[in-house]
Every structure is written in C-alpha cells, then in structure tokens.
Recover the amino acids of this structure.
C-alpha cells in the first residue's frame, strides 16, 4: 500500500531578511581566493576508454579541496560536463560511467571527505552540528562553497563547454545539488535525489534516524542554544535556496524515506522558482528514492538539456 504524504507540506524554514546578502558576501570572499587548480593524471585508475585525474583546488578559508575528474579518451570538441556531489557518509566515487556517456565529469570531495581532511575533519557524526550556533562558523558554509567551487574548476577547462554544465547527487548530494543550482547560474540542469539539508527543523521531528538526529542530540546537551541553532539553519536550509533555482530540475523522493522525509522534498519542490521542474515520487521506496530505475531518468534528462 502506498504511503500517504502531504504534498502541500509547509516547512518551518523561513528565509532570513539578509539571506541573499549573506551568501553574496560569502561568494565575494571566496572570489578573492585564487583557484590554483592542480590536475594529476592517475594512470592506475584510468582505462582504455577513460582518463582519470586527481584534482585539487582552493576554496573558502584557503582549504584545499580534492576531486576526481574523468574524461572520455575519444573526444572531439568541447564536452558537456556533469558534476557529481556526495552523500553524507559516502566518499566521492570515480564517475567513469558519466565519462563513458561522453561527458567531462567532476566528483567533488568537500572538506572533511576523503582526501580533503587535512585542514578540516569534524567526523561523521559531527559535520551536521559543527559550529551550528553561528552562520559564520557553521560547517556547511565552507562545505557548500567547496561544491560551488567545483563549477569554477569546470569553467577553467578548455575541454568543457561552459554553456552545458549539470549537477547531480543524492541525499546530501541532493541538498548540494539544490544549493549549487541556486547559487551558480552556470548550471544548466540539475537532478537532486532524496534531498537532505532541506527542512532541517522539520526533519528532526518527522524522523527518528541519523544524521538529522545529530541535531536533537546537540539540543539535548545545549537546550539554551535552540534559537541560535534555528537562526543559523535558516541560512543553510535548501528550501530557502529554492527561490534562486531557475534551470531545469528534476527531484526524486522515496515515499517511505525515514532519513530524508518526503514531506520536505515536496516542500522544497513547491518553492523552486524554475518553470521546468518535475517531481518523481517512488511509492515503494525508502532512502534509495527509486535509484535503480531513476538512473535512466537522470541520464535522459541530462541528454535532453546538456546534449
């Protein structure tokens, strides 16, 4: 039997009056930091048809970020690009499958992820609540920018067609897809799965699972900080970024997801400004959000919008 979800669910998230100013200042800060990209061929991980590279670049607070970069060996002319952003506990994969489809593909490891831990490593659990009482110290301030900075790397590459860049990910990767599509107008298509980091304060009541329960654990120890926590999270809630998304976008949710509650997925979807948006609810699915069958939907979506 299909799980019933209120598709008109209204989130507790509220856009702060200075939301856009805050993030514009963050973007201005990082724009002053040279990207200094380094691209290192990785012969061991390459194959007859795919070239694999280790990539490094500078991000906010001069944190050095790692990524995997894959290119099809047989290529002519600039390529469309797909940037892949990771889940909360998973480390970024080497996305050869996108390169085999003819794309340049960057798989980003934001701070704290494998190969990006030297300067910042709050651990898992830990990332979700690190610096949570102040918008200027909260972990996701840098984490979001690390993903956005991946777009700058792609823009710097001669083999990439700057007019054809997409972004995709699931769970935390879904949340990063939302914020990247919102803050980087160079993104021409976005596919977000089971979006995490959307409806933080809703989710700690709608679920009893981790990672969101890290926030409840924190509040049990720091009850006096609840107002500060809510204030901070309003600057980072993906739902509050939705008004800035204008590119074509698809979202998939599992209607029985007990990690990222589907109610928050619908609340996000309803706030997205793009006129070209589609929701794919999977009735019999949990946090996988129909991944097995939805992969073909994402592939077709990018083929349509990126060529």
């Amino acid at each position: 039997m299909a799980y019933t979800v209120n598709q008109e669910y209204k989130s507790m998230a509220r856009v702060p009056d200075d939301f856009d100013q805050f993030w514009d200042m963050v973007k201005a800060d990082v724009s002053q930091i040279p990207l200094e990209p380094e691209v290192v061929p990785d012969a061991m991980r390459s194959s007859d048809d795919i070239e694999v590279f280790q990539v490094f670049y500078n991000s906010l607070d001069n944190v050095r970020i790692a990524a995997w970069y894959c290119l099809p060996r047989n290529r002519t002319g600039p390529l469309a690009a797909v940037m892949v952003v990771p889940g909360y506990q998973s480390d970024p994969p080497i996305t050869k499958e996108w390169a085999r489809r003819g794309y340049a593909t960057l798989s980003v490891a934001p701070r704290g992820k494998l190969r990006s831990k030297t300067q910042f490593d709050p651990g898992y659990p830990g990332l979700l609540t690190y610096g949570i009482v102040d918008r200027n110290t909260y972990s996701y301030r840098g984490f979001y920018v690390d993903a956005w900075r991946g777009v700058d790397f792609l823009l710097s590459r001669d083999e990439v067609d700057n007019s054809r860049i997409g972004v995709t990910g699931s769970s935390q990767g879904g949340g990063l897809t939302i914020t990247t599509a919102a803050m980087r107008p160079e993104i021409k298509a976005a596919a977000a799965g089971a979006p995490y980091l959307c409806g933080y304060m809703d989710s700690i009541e709608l679920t009893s699972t981790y990672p969101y329960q890290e926030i409840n654990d924190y509040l049990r120890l720091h009850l006096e900080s609840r107002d500060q926590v809510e204030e901070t999270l309003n600057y980072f809630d993906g739902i509050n970024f939705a008004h800035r998304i204008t590119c074509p976008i698809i979202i998939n949710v599992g209607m029985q997801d007990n990690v990222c509650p589907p109610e928050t997925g619908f609340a996000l979807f309803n706030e997205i400004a793009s006129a070209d948006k589609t929701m794919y609810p999977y009735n019999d699915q949990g946090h996988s959000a129909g991944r097995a069958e939805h992969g073909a939907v994402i592939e077709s979506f990018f083929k349509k919008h990126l060529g």
